[in-house]
Structures are given as C-alpha cells and as structure tokens.
Amino acid sequence: MSSSETGPGGQAHGSVKEYVIGLILSIVLTIIPFYLVMSGVGSDTFTVITIVVAAIAQVLVQMVFFLHMNGSSEQTWLTASAVYTVFILLFVIVGSLWIFEHLNHNMLMGH
Amino acid sequence: MTALTNDHDLHDHDDHHHHEAEAADRYVFGFWLYIISDCLLFSTLFATYAVMGQSFGSGIKPEELFDLGFVAVETALLLFSSFTFGMAMLGANAENMAKTKFWLIITALLGLSFLGMEIYEFVHFSHEGATPQTSGYWTSFYSLVATHGLHVTAGLIWMFFLFIHFKRDGFSNENKIRLACLSLFWHFLDIIWICVFSFVYLRGAM
Predict the structure, then answer these.
(1) Across B145-164, average pLDDT
(2) Taking the domain B2-205, which CATH number applies?
(3) pLDDT range class, residue A72, cuts 50, 70, 90
(4) Which of A2, A18, A28, B41 is deepest in the core (most CB within 10 A)?
(5) Candidates A19, A37, A97; nearest CB to B51
C-alpha cells in the first residue's frame, strides 16, 4: 500500500509514518499552549495569540496527516466544501461577536 | 444502505470493482457533507460560548474550577485515540482483521476513558456550584462541551455495532465504507476537541 493510493472519498490511505508525524506535531502543538497558560510566563496577549495559532496549526496538521487532505484534483469537492465551511464558520462566529459587542456597548450607554 | 448491498453480483469483473470504488467514494463524500454540517452546528455553539464568555452574573467563574492538568489528560486520551484509529485504518487497508480489531478496541477504551473523565468533571463542577442554570456562561459551556461528549458517545456506540458487523461479514465492501466514515467522524471529534481545549479551557483558565 503506497501512501499515494486513494481510498473512499478520494482520500489517500496514509501510512504509519504519516500518522506518527501527525501525532508528534499534535503533541508539540498541545504542550506549547498548555505550558504557557499553566506556567504563566509571557504576557496575556502573547499567550492568547499562541493559543489561537497553535489551535489553527493543530487543526491543519490533523486535516493533513489524519484526514489525508492534500488539495489534489481527486479531492476538489472535499477541499471546496471545506473552504466553504471555513467561511461560514467565520461569518457565524465573528458576526455574532460583532453584533453582540455593539448590543452590549449600546445597552451600557443607556440608549 | 440498500444500494450498497445490491452490489454483490458485480464482484467478478474489474470494471465492476471500479464501480464499487466509485460507489464507496460517493458514500464517504456524503458522510463528509454530514461532517461539514456538524461543523456548522459546533460553530454556532462556539459563537454562543464566545458571546456568553463574560456573562458570569453572581455565579462561580471558570478560572476557579478549571483544572488544566485534568484537561491535559483528557486531551491526550482523545489525541491518542485518533492515532490508534489511524492504526486500525491501516490494519483494514491491509485486510488484517486481528490488527484492525485490536486497534479499534484500544480506540474505544481511550474514548470511553475520555467520556468517563468528562462525566466526572461535570458532576464535580455541579457540586461546586456550576450547573447549566448558574449563568449564561455555564449554559453555553455545558451546551458546547456536552454536545461534543454526546458525539463521542455516538462514536463509541457506532464502534460497538461496527465490531458486530466485522464479526459477521469481515472486510466486506459495506464494512470498509462504514469504517472509513467512522474514521472521518472520530478524527473530526478530535479536531473539535482542539478548539474546545484551546478556546474554552485554556482561555477560560487564564
């Protein structure tokens, strides 16, 4: 079984090596934010940014090494639907925060 | 599933193998679309959590309750279960039943331990005065984390039934598709958990 062979859904089958790399990267990307928060070193801003960056990086690592997404042409629909989801996700989360920020602000101002 | 089981008279020809592979592709892609809609469900729960992030009222605050060491163990359990499921998939690709079953059992045990820890945590939090009724914050916390927990529960039940299927039919085409879908589902749950421990626990404990 070569790692380039594709399985159901246009996904590549993966190999032990690929899963081990994914696991190690995930462990590293988990330990860094946990260490920062638990030890309290670094400013709050730095810690928050690291948490966000490490989370996004780990999601990407798992999509590549565990879900075997690679953006190849057999996976056009997979990739397209994933990108679409990211947009909707951002609209929902950023949009909600934005709206409620304004609501809270206006309520506190006594309007 | 009826369309799948109707494929059995096609086994003999290469051409038909190709058809089977295409059918499998379609089924797994269909399941992928479900995963995406589930993603949107979680995005609304995360949005609610973010909006409710400071709505503590007179209730207890998360930084008084969150135990990051505990969460780190939960995270490790789920991450390793994602890895062991990958090993089970490799076993299935090689049509090695013993290997597939062995890694599936390890995955199920890790998932079960995770679930046990989560239930223990909820009971503990409730005793300390943080129930879903306590404040807007805790309502959104329990909605989000428990929805993830329910998904893990569903995954474990699915794993149990898949085991029975494997025992009965071995590596049939249907069972391989079922395993591929469950694998997507399980990895997806780990990805959701990354967001939960980052944005709920780590952020909440600061």
Answers:
(1) 96
(2) 1.20.120.80
(3) confident
(4) A18
(5) A97
